[in-house]
Specification:
- This protein is of the alpha+beta class and 70 residues long.
- The protein has one domain.
- The protein is 43% helix and 14% strand.
- It is built from one helix and two strands, in the order H-E-E.
- A two-stranded antiparallel ribbon has the order 1-2.
- It is elongated, with a radius of gyration of 14 Å.
């Protein structure tokens, strides 16, 4: 039973990551900009695990970090 719960959680994480990659790609194309995605649980700082959340942003200054300009 525990295996099924873990498998479902992994499947959900993979689906969220796949969707975030699609959004990042589409945004990069439509905005003609570098778009960065990384793990984040609070939409501000990098997180440790992809399961905590994903942040996608247009990286206006190409710094690969979320800053005020982005």
């Amino acid at each position: 039973m525990l295996y099924l719960v873990q498998q479902k959680a992994s499947d959900v994480t993979i689906k969220h990551l796949h969707r975030a990659i699609e959004v990042a790609r589409t945004s990069a194309i439509t905005q003609n900009a570098l778009v960065t995605l990384y793990r984040s649980s609070d939409s501000v700082l990098c997180g440790d695990k992809w399961q905590q959340g994903i942040l996608v942003f247009a990286d206006q200054d190409s710094g690969r970090n979320l800053e005020r300009e982005d």
